Amino acid sequence: MLLAVGWTTPLAAQDAGATPPVAAEAIYEDPSLLSQAELVSERRSILPGERIQIGLSIRVPEGWHTYWINPGDAGAEAVVHWEGVPEGFEISEILWPRPERYEVPPLMSYGYGDETLLLMDLQVPDGVEPGTAITLGGVAEWLFCDEICLFTDAPVSLELAVVADGPEADPEWDERFAEARSLLPVAVRGAGDPSGWSLDALYGDETFVLQVEAPAGWQGELDDLYFFPRNPSVLEHAALQPVVMGPGSNAARLILEPSRYMGELPERLEGVLAPPVGTPGWEPGAVPALDIAVAIEAVPTDQIAALLPPESQAVQAAQGADETGSGIPTLLVALVLAFLGGLMLNLMPCVFPVISLKILSFVNQAGSEPRRVRRHGYVFGLGVVLSFLALAGLLLAIRAAGADVGWGFQLQDPRIVAALTALLFLIGLNLLGLFEIGTSLTRLGRVGSGGGYRDSFLTGVLATIVATPCTAPLMGVAIGAAFIRPPVESLAIFAGLGLGMATPYMVLSSAPGLLEKLPAPGRWMETFRQLMAFPMFAVALWLLWVFGLQTGIDGATALLAGLLLLALAGWILGRWSGSSAGSSAGRSGSGRVIWSRSAAALSILAGVAFA
Description:
Mean pLDDT: 78
Number of domains: 3
Distance between the termini: 30 Å
Number of helices: 17
């Protein structure tokens, strides 16, 4: 799924799978009610010099999931930042169990549902003193997703007694550790491996072929294998992986599509090879999966072609992809969906106030030259499209660097969530008429009264900024398609989103007949402007909820205090630095303006500090 916090309601997040049901108010205050992490051990006591296993247990509600070391097209793996490890103790990296696929066409993610126990080896030093106790501590961070994604962290610690002999097992965790070990993939390192498995990785004609041969006499199935790459930039995660059987029932080869972000050909193909859970021959505790690291051999095109499926099989595989709804639309379909999604974005609570009030600015342009009005419409559209392209370029650059992010990725950072909350809150106050900064935050409705083209362009930029917390229908498929296509096509899809969002305004600015049908200017315009403040407040309230999930009740309270101080700053500006202040004569008026702006600046700084 997309790594984003989409537009939803608190109850929607609850209904998506909270088990047992949790009151929405409680979730605001404590996100750990949705997901918890705990540092555990299969033993209550340890011996000097031994090596045991500890684990990070992560629980998520039914229907939610966490992520593997390579999360796929979107996500982030769990990590532990160790802060309290006694001297001499060594903790390994996480030993990842075999992952599962989570497909949200056209994207593919890898991870774990329900409860997951992530094992780590703990090496106890020889010199540790029996009769003492040691404590391991750190901070666990993990992302868990369903309809939305939530990023959280929690302090974790584990106390273990040191004994001279007879270490005590922990009956609560003993069996669960055995179960977790049974899901660890079996390491295979290429042809002639001692396990009896033989693997070869070939590359040519922009195609990988992974050849697999099972040990003699093996009674399992290979026709539904799937390869989970460890490196997120080697394969296209959502692409089909056709399996060609033979020669014999114990041999198969997987056809793998390289990622457009791969760059140079890696030396080794690393990852986990596994069929669906329950496939005969792949039982937990025996061979649940293969952890492979195979040298890649570059071969001529004709050699690769000889290993690919026959033409009839290739056609059948393509038809099967269409029939099963792989969800990867053509570029033309993606562009159409992007345009329609951009149109619908105008109706989202984030965008509607800005767009609607900008359209109402036409009411003040009845006597303006049509050509000038039309130019302002196109400049506004240019601001929207260029802003979408800038956002797309940033997204693609981050993904090319190896991070898996999607639309709304910035909402994973509490600082950006707080900044967006403050911006939308201030726009709401501005629409209510509490204050004006120069010519207003939104710069709405100034084309016919001295506003320049820069104002129209910046309004387009602002409309795009306030649109980022929202996702309109059809946008998900279009954006997902953008992330698995070449950069030029990705930019075209994002440009389609921007064009769809800007089209209503550009059409209206180009149609004098439509302008004549707008109601005459009047006091109703101020009433409507004030009414549009409340959708802004609604989105700010939702972002505040997201911020509370990320930082807890203390963080949400601090942000509320910051918003209060920002409101105070707006009131000071509106009361003493507006038109009434400008009409004051002499030093008294100037001093009042200086004082009011200084007080407002201090309030803003205090608000930022609180937030």
